[in-house]
Specification:
Elements (H helix, E strand, L loop, with lengths): L7 H22 L1 H10 L3 H5 L4 H18 L3 H21 L3 H31 L1 H7 L1
Helix pairs in contact: 1-2, 1-4, 1-6, 5-6
């Protein structure tokens, strides 16, 4: 019988990637909701000055999802996702509504996943580095 090894890091990466893909689809199918969030946020003047901002966000979310799913530049993808989610949380909190506060709390779960991936990627880099291995030999 073949044993299946559960790779927790990849499982969390897939979960986080699926959230980023859902964000891409939400932004395309519910553009009014995205625009309302941006217009009511503290940063509305900054974001409204950027042409096609919704498409930039969607492209970013898609790229992060692909990087996480395919394990391309996993350390960069984890940091990028973490910083992006932190920015999303700040935007939601800046709206000062209960609905957006709840969305910010929901995004904190995703942020925790991204932080886990960042910490895990740092540990792997330290453990896998040649200088550390030669010291323990």
């Amino acid at each position: 019988m073949r044993k299946i090894r559960l790779d927790l890091v990849y499982l969390i990466s897939l979960g986080l990637a699926s959230a980023f893909l859902a964000s891409v689809l939400r932004n395309f199918f519910y553009q009014a909701s995205f625009n309302e969030l941006i217009e009511s946020s503290f940063f509305s003047e900054i974001f409204s000055a950027i042409p096609y901002f919704i498409y930039i966000v969607a492209f970013n979310d898609f790229l992060v999802a692909v990087l996480l799913m395919l394990r391309i530049f996993p350390k960069v993808a984890a940091w990028w996702a973490m910083l992006w989610l932190l920015a999303v949380i700040i935007v939601h909190v800046s709206v000062f509504s209960l609905e957006d506060l709840l969305d910010a709390i929901e995004h904190m779960g995703l942020l925790a996943m991204a932080i886990f991936l960042v910490i895990k990627s740092r540990k792997q880099t330290i453990v896998d580095s040649p200088s550390t291995s030669s010291l323990s030999a």
